[in-house]
Write a structure and sequence with these properties.
The protein is of the alpha+beta class and 117 residues long. The protein folds into 2 domains: 1-36; 38-116, OB fold (Dihydrolipoamide Acetyltransferase, E2P) (Beta Barrel). It has 3 helices and 5 strands, in the order H-E-E-E-H-E-E-H. It starts with a helix and ends with a helix.
């Protein structure tokens, strides 16, 4: 009986370590791909902010007609408000930075919207 139990536990451990190894392998290659890609910039708007119980901070951005959520550092989370507009910089599929629009740029946008209508 103990021979079968040892065999079962050995196979179970191999499968478990195989799955753990596969997850790390996929995560490493995604990280490597994101680091090797160039920086992409696009106009975006902050749509929502949320913080998890674990202390992770996320911002929801709207750009190119879709909304995507990114994990951000505390300093970025604290510096942005819902409704802020600017340039979202991405490195691959990861958040790199967000550059606010200046007051002058915002005023120009509002003026163009008023004059256009």
């Amino acid at each position: 009986m103990s021979k079968y139990l040892a065999l079962f536990l050995g196979i179970y451990a191999l499968i478990l370590w195989g799955l753990v190894g596969y997850v790390f392998y996929k995560a490493y290659h995604e990280w490597k791909d994101n680091k090797s890609k160039r920086l992409h910039s696009r106009p975006a708007k902050v749509m929502d902010k949320r913080e998890t119980k674990g202390g992770d901070r996320y911002l929801l951005f709207q750009f190119d007609g879709r909304q995507v959520e990114y994990k951000v550092a505390e300093s970025v989370y604290e510096s942005l408000r819902v409704g802020d507009e600017g340039t979202l910089n991405l490195c691959g599929r990861e958040f790199a930075s967000f550059d606010h629009k200046s007051q002058d740029e915002r005023a120009d946008d509002i003026f163009r919207r008023i004059v256009k209508d």
